[in-house]
Every structure is written in C-alpha cells, then in structure tokens.
Specification:
heterodimer, A: five-stranded antiparallel β-sheet, 11 helices, B: 161 residues, alpha+beta, five-stranded mixed β-sheet, globular
C-alpha cells in the first residue's frame, strides 16, 4: 500500500477542515472494509485518511417518534441490527445491515460507508431509499440535506464533494400501517454480492395500498429509485394483480448488464420476482407478521 | 519525511506499545512488529477470516483494520485463548473432533467461535453457520468445524454445572 497519513479528528468541524485542506487527496474512513481494500489494490490512493469514528455525531443512533431515526454515518452494522428501536421500527434496515459481509465485516462496516462507497450492489442503499432516508452532508460552509435516492451518481461516485463529509442519515418515524423489506438474490446463503437487490416499503389502508416505494440494486450504474412502481400501487387493492403490475414496472426500469453474476435477462426476471416477494413480505410485516431478516 | 506512529494498546490483557506506519494493517503489526504470528494472513481483503481478532469485544478482520486504529483498544488474538491451566474447550473440541487439516484457518475460526459462545452459549447449527460465514476453510469443509463448536458449547455448559 502507498504511504498514507492518518488523522482521527474529534469534531465534524475538524474533520471537514482536514478534508477541505487536502481536497481530492483525502478520504474519510469509517469501518474501512471497502477503503482499506481499495487502497491495498491501488484503486483509491488518498494521501490522507481521515478516521471519522472518533466524532460523536457520526456514532449517534437515536430514535424519537417526532424525528425518527438519526443514524451516524460511522455506526457499524452490528449496532444497527442490535438496536431495539431499529428492530422495532425499521426491520427493512435490519434486513440490509445483517447481510452486508459476514460477522467480522459487520463489526466495522457502516451503512454510511456503504452509501458513500456507492457500489451499484450496495445492500443498504435500496433499503434506505425505500424508507425515504435523507443524508446530512457537512462542509466547511455548513450542512446540506440530500435525499438518498439522489446521493449516488455512478459507480463509486456520490454527491459528496471533496471537503465534504456524510455526517448522518435520517429516516422518518414509520407511520401507522407501514412495513418494509429488503431482499437480494445470491447463489449461496450469505457473504456474497447481490445479483439483484430489492428494497420496498408499503403503507396500507385496509384492503388497499395507500403508498409504496420500490428501489433496486445491481441493475444499473447506481441503485435505482423506481417511483412509478410504488406509485402504481397507490389506491389499488392489495392483490396479486396489483403486486404483479408493480413487479413488471420494476423489471422495466432495470438497466442491467450481463456479467459473471448473471445475464441482463436473468436480472430483469429477478427484479420482478424479488419485487413481488419483497412487497408480500412488507405487507406481512405491516399486518404484524414476522419475517426474519435471513 | 514520513514518520512512524506510536500506538499503545492492550493485547490479550497486556499493555503493548509499538511503532508502525499508518498504512500497515493491524495484521501486519501483530505478525511483523509484535511477532504474534498465530493470527494468519489468508486473502488480505476481508473474505476469508483467517486474520480474525477480537477488538473491544467484536470480531474483526485484522487485515481490514489499520494498526494505528488499535490505539487505546483491547485486542484479543489466538495467543490469548489458551490459559496456563490448559487449552480452551474450543481448542480441545477442534483437536478431538479433527476440525482442521492444514490449520491456517483455525486461529480465525477459534477466535470467531469464542466470541459467539461468549454472547450465545447455546447456538443452533444455523446460528453457528451464519456467525462463521466470514471464515473460510479450504480443506475440511465445515461440518466438523460446526460440530466442534457445538461440542465446545456443551463442554462449557457442563463445566458450569
């Protein structure tokens, strides 16, 4: 690995000052499970690594019924899926946090890091998009808020500019009669990259859908928010036909490539299958049923 | 001129200090600077778990931790698993159950399994398999390893009675 300098600031201000001084040559590090690998193979070559785990705001994990969940960008996956408020209110987030890497990776890797790494297959990203999460980004001149569906631009590129830092994610408190689910297809039981991933959330009103959100991973250069698939469910009866229509729209929105994990055709097929399954699981959860993360 | 960084940490209950370059992984620091070579390098990119150590109560891949991050932390390695009284029940169960062949993956499996049994003394087979999904063995397959962990859990429960 190329020589790096290492800094571990204790405040957001200190961190963004360091990041701004070095610009492109600095990179923030949370769990390091992507960044250290990238530095070792020479794919990223920062001169300065800014370890953000010592900053209190980046370790925050708090829930209130008014503000919902505030999740610091450096909170590792295991703290997320062991958090009582998250388990109760955001099972769709638990789904993603508990399948990113294995136990060792989950001891370090954060959802904020998964988002900033901006892999098309990032498991947390569709889950966040389905839940309507917003990202708080700090710079030397203050902070701004970006919807997670607008955060990723291309593989490994995000709206975070040199000198900026993702501080936290906020997810609204779940409304009554809502449920969410993230599922992915991999050819084994764990520790793999999604061939396709689907995150959904639903809001039900008796026997009809009030609203829904659908998001896809691994089928485009960045995770997709498929607004039309969710919108197609609004006001429709909770039926196989409604779900099938949303699944078709999800598959139509996918722009996959063919690679060693699967052909484009296969991935489109999976989009429909997984959207259907995810919607049914989210409905089950809304009605108080138990759907295990994996 | 690049300078080395001073790191003060606790390894297997003992205060340890060392100098390292910020680019060196905790794995390199353990093996090449501190000569604690029980922790193995496998893939060096977080897939195989051979380099698993315990850091502040959580298992991590030491190849994916910078040595400088160990400052102020409590690190547990395979060297700290046996005590002067003898081997840990996991080590006995692995030996007696022949849950290893070449042995490169074994320190990682033992350190990972120890952390599992500390938080879940009676794991199911499925819980063991998910917990150990980040540890790869290219010789034996996993049945003997999973059975050894269940055997160790039984031994530890029996010792409590």
């Amino acid at each position: 690995m190329k020589w790096i300098d290492y800094a571990s600031p204790h405040t957001v201000k200190e961190a963004v000052t360091l990041l701004a001084e070095k610009g492109d040559a600095a990179r923030a590090m949370a769990g390091g499970t992507d960044l250290i690998v990238e530095m070792r193979v020479g794919r990223r070559t920062p001169a300065l690594v800014v370890d953000i785990k010592g900053i209190p705001e980046l370790n925050e994990i708090t829930y209130t019924t008014e503000d919902g969940l505030t999740l610091g960008a450096a909170v590792p996956c295991y703290k997320i899926y062991n958090n009582k408020a998250v388990i109760k209110n955001y099972p769709g987030l638990v789904d993603a946090a508990s399948i990113i890497g294995g136990t060792q990776i989950q001891g370090r890797a954060s959802i904020g890091g998964n988002l900033c790494n901006a892999a098309p297959s990032g498991d947390a990203i569709p889950a966040l998009i389905a839940l309507g999460a917003k990202a708080k980004i700090a710079g030397v001149n203050g902070t701004r808020i970006v919807n997670v569906e607008d955060f990723c631009l291309a593989p490994r590129q995000t709206v975070v500019k040199p000198g900026e830092l993702l501080v936290s994610l906020s997810i609204p408190a779940p409304k009554a009669n809502t449920g969410a689910r993230y599922i992915r297809f991999i050819p084994r039981n764990e520790m793999d990259i999604a061939v396709v991933g689907v995150g959904v959330s639903v809001e039900l009103n008796g026997s009809t859908f009030k609203s829904a959100r659908v998001s896809l991973a691994s089928v485009a250069p960045k995770p997709l928010f498929v607004k039309e698939a969710g919108d197609a469910l609004a006001g429709k009866p909770i039926s196989e036909a409604s779900i099938e229509k949303a699944a078709e729209l999800a598959a139509a929105a996918a722009k996959p490539i063919s690679d060693m994990r699967g052909t484009a055709e296969y991935r489109k097929h999976l989009c429909a299958v997984l959207t259907r399954r995810a919607l049914n699981a989210a409905i089950e959860r809304t009605r108080g049923g138990t759907v295990n993360a994996h | 001129m690049p300078t080395k960084t001073y790191v003060q940490t606790t390894i297997n209950g003992e205060q340890v200090e060392f100098l390292c370059e910020p680019r060196q992984s905790l794995l390199e620091c353990l093996r090449d600077i501190l000569h604690l070579t029980g922790t193995k390098e496998g893939c060096n990119d977080g897939n195989c778990g051979a380099c698993t150590v315990n850091m502040d109560g959580r298992i991590v891949c030491s190849c994916l931790v910078l040595g400088v991050e160990a400052n102020g932390k409590e690190i547990g390695t395979i060297e700290g698993v046996a005590t002067p009284k003898g081997l840990h029940p996991l080590q006995l169960a692995f030996l007696e159950g022949a849950a290893l062949q070449c042995g490169i993956c074994t320190p990682g499996f033992i350190v990972a399994s120890k952390a599992l049994l500390e938080q879940n003394p009676r794991p199911t087979e499925q819980e063991i398999r998910f917990w150990l999904a980040n540890n790869l063995c290219r010789c034996t397959g996993y049945d003997k390893i999973v059975r050894a962990v269940m055997d160790a859990a039984n031994r530890m429960e029996a010792a409590k009675r």
